[in-house]
Amino acid sequence: MAGHGAAPERNEGRPVDPVGRISLYDRLRQGGGLLQDGAPGGPVNPLLRMVLRWVRRPLLAALRLWRRNIQLRVVASTLLMSLGVVLLLGIVVIGQVRNGLQDAKTSAAQSQATGGFKVAQDQADADARGEPGATAGSRAQLNSGVWLTDLVQQLASGGQGVYSVVALSSDTQQPFVDDSSGTRAPRSSGDVQPERSVPQALRDSLDAEPGTYMQHTRIIRSSGAGEPALAIGKQLNDVNGNPYQLYYLFPFTQEEKSLSLVKTTLATAGVFVVVLLGAIAWVVVRQVVTPVRMAAGISERLAAGLLQERMKVTGEDDIARLGESFNKMAQNLQHKIQQLEELSRMQRRFVSDVSHELRTPLTTVRMAAEVIHDGREDFDPVTARSAELLRGQVDRFESLLSDLLEISRFDAGAAALEAEPIDLRTVVDQVIEGAEPLAENKGSRIVVRGAEQPVIAEADPRRIERVLRNLVVNAVEHGEGRDVVVRLAAAGGAVAVAVRDYGVGLKPGEATRVFNRFWRADPARARTTGGTGLGLSIAVEDARLHGGWLQAWGEPGGGSQFRLTLPRTADGTLRGSPIPLEPEDSRRNREQAQDGAPAERGAIRAAAPGATPAPRPAPAVADPAALPGSGTRVVARGEGGRPTAGRGAGTGGPRQGRADDDREDGSGDA
């Protein structure tokens, strides 16, 4: 149980969205959508909600593993970066290889095509000069169709599988000597479809301007299959002077096989490199993480009280030096803790022994004081007053001695809980009956609310009566003659009793310090009134012994409220309190009601000690003394007399009268 046996409010410390006042992270964890029912775009489709819930579990598990395992993060990061480097390197290498193969293919194709064009033109010129005496018409009739076919076959005979030769008629308007159907038909080697394999743009370029042109294309076979290729063409004249277009088609089959081999090799090598780098990273990180995990486990065991735990140190490297330093730190801590434990045992034993030893002389002093007090009427006024003071201080000393004995039992862990089912209404009635004379003397009235129904809990009646007596007597003494309200409530597995006064209240930070032993609001003042200074310290220990909370709230000039929350059963666990810690009639709630904002009503849910406090609706001022788990809250006086809600502020307003300086945790013991 953290702090002073108290717990802060639940659902605190996490940012919320402005629409639903529910944290977005909690919505996703709970399987809900980002849009609420009734919000723009809602309600959420039930099927989508089901899919989100189905996907949420593995995602949360993976996210939790990712956040908790540094070795996984390092190895995954190494794999991703290695994969990126391998991919980038592969893209660069493949691009370089592709460009090299393409340049080599283009250079070889240009040389081959240039030689073929020269051979074709020389062949046409030689055939034209080798037939003296024949007319042009007769040469065309005998040679124009057959000559072009023979030329294509002759040129393609030396490049089987390396290139194909295609001859197409020219689309120029130059007249043909022989314009028969066979003269203008396309010709090709192999199973190439000439007109589909040669792009029209390349043919138009040859017709437009003489020269050698090339363009990337696809060779279309008779079977319909195609393959990428480079087409190089030139316009020539046949044996009869008729223009035609001669093309060399060079397929990239061999280059594609080479490039595919390079890709496969790079992919295989890349996979092996990435896996190898991941394995290396795993081994290296494991060598570093394993000692860290060992240190974390030993630290947890040290925190659990196993002070003899030590790290296993091997080698002389940095990790070994870290282990040695850790072991030295643990040894020093163990030595210091043992010294403190021994000192604490000596102090507890001293307090216990002194308290017991003082009982005998105190009994004698009390008897003498009673005799003197009974005969004070025969003394002079000064001596009679001294007799009264002597009796009062002896009573105070006896009360202090009893409290010291009780505190020593708590410190020694010897306090025993004798729980039984009790009705807190009965305990409250007994406490009020005992405090009535003091209330009448102070001009106060004690009002009980919520006593209509039984408030049953398994508790130690003696300890609960002592706690409530402290709270009620404190409220009466510091209530400045105003009413004191005692409220009872039960809900779920908890019961609560709250004592509200309307006196000077508490300054910022005092709500936590009020439970400290011998604490006073003004240390400069002498302790002349009130109890022993140990009342609330014993009360909070009694609350912890029951597994309950004792919490305080206050505001300067607005009074204070102390709330005792207990589980219904002796072995129960508290998850909330049926009474809000800040009363409904606090200054902040009243101003909210005047401004039209609803005040806090009903029980304020309280989390287990250690939760993080949530921000209040009003601007809060942090109080270093009100740490998480204390469950205390103080409202400081802001500028212009307006309060600012928070868990205490650095400095409070001016002192609110005499009783504020006399407020101390044990005033209820008088």
TrEMBL record:
UniProt GO cellular component terms: plasma membrane
Transmembrane domains' residue ranges: 74-95, 266-285
Primary subcellular site in the record, as a coarse category: membrane
Biased composition annotated in UniProt, kind: Polar residues: 174-183
Compositional bias annotation for Gly residues: 641-655
Keyword Phosphoprotein: yes
SUPFAM superfamilies, per the entry: ATPase domain of HSP90 chaperone/DNA topoisomerase II/histidine kinase (SSF55874), HAMP domain-like (SSF158472), Homodimeric domain of signal transducing histidine kinase (SSF47384)
Domain named Histidine kinase: residues: 353-570
Any Pfam family hit: HATPase_c
Topology of the protein relative to the lipid bilayer: Multi-pass membrane protein
CDD domains: HAMP, HATPase, HisKA
Reactions this protein catalyses: ATP + protein L-histidine = ADP + protein N-phospho-L-histidine
EC nos: 2.7.13.3
Top-level taxon in the UniProt lineage: Bacteria
SMART domains registered for this protein in UniProt: HAMP, HATPase_c, HisKA
Disordered, as annotated region: 108-137, 174-205, 569-670
Compositionally skewed regions (Low complexity) per UniProt: 596-611, 619-629
Localization per Swiss-Prot or TrEMBL: Cell membrane
Keyword terms: ATP-binding, Cell membrane, Kinase, Membrane, Nucleotide-binding, Phosphoprotein, Transferase, Transmembrane, Transmembrane helix, Two-component regulatory system
Span of domain HAMP: 286-338
Basic and acidic residues bias: start-end ranges: 584-593
Gene3D superfamilies the UniProt entry points to: 1.10.287.130, 6.10.340.10, Histidine kinase-like ATPase, C-terminal domain (3.30.565.10)
Entry GO MF terms: ATP binding; phosphorelay sensor kinase activity
Name this polypeptide is given: Sensor histidine kinase MtrB
Source organism per UniProt: Streptomyces xinghaiensis
